[in-house]
Specification:
Order of helices and strands: EEEEEEEE
Shape: elongated
Number of helices: 0
Distance between the termini: 12 Å
Largest sheet: 5 strands, mixed
Helix content: under 10%
Strand content: over 45%
Amino acid sequence: PPQVALGQPVDFRFEIANAGTAPAEKVLLRDLLPEGFKHPDGNDLEYEVGTLAPGKSQSVTLRAAAVKPGNFTNTAVVTAAAGLKTEARWPCRTNCAAL
């Protein structure tokens, strides 16, 4: 979500799609959570998607907690074999008040 209250969980949802005509192999999602959020496994997270068939997609949901007020940008990078890479950024805000 674009805004969340401190101490509340927030789900970052990623939709990874293969728009190509061949299978995408060794697909890996790397999410760099901003300092305003915390995950039990740290803020540099990886999720192995594996092989993604042409025209197929896979959803990945990452749950973190809002721990610091401010404006932040979440950065996600998806890589695959043969040097494929794409990056997305999403602004998000945490605040001290309940929403």
